[in-house]
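Predict structure. Chain length: 159.
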Amino acid sequence: MLLGKLSRVKLAHLPTPLEELSTLTKILGGPRIFIKQDDCTGLAMGGNKVRKLEFLLGDAEAQGAEILITEGGVQSNHCRQTVATARQCGMEWIVVLHSSGRPDITGNLLLDQILGACIVLVEKGEDMKTSFKKSFPRIKLLRRDEDPLDGLSISTIVK
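Prediction complete.
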């Protein structure tokens, strides 16, 4: 399928710059080496996940999704980017984070909270289906429905 036919939401500041690594090129004796600066894509300190999220969010919007649910480690860049993406597009979001014990609120977890993420902490190693079910009460809270999935269009974005 051609990319132009896929639903997409423009989020990233593109194109991101290329920076020549002239010292490394010199040390290695060539060829010229460049690095792509994906930290310049925008959205909560940038990152390479924004390009993927443009298509995932486009698909979610095309399906009429109202809530995004993503899952990852407590310091997940993917989760941070998903929270920022949902916020940018006016959608609700739930972040299911895997952690061993009570995590320190630093790094991406701190950014998730600053961005207003609805966070569900689960034990590290728990399978996705079980951890996803733990987000149902949060969906119910956001939607105020009897059945958390009744009439709800959910797009699960998985790393």
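Summary: Residues 145-159 have pLDDT under 50 and may be disordered.
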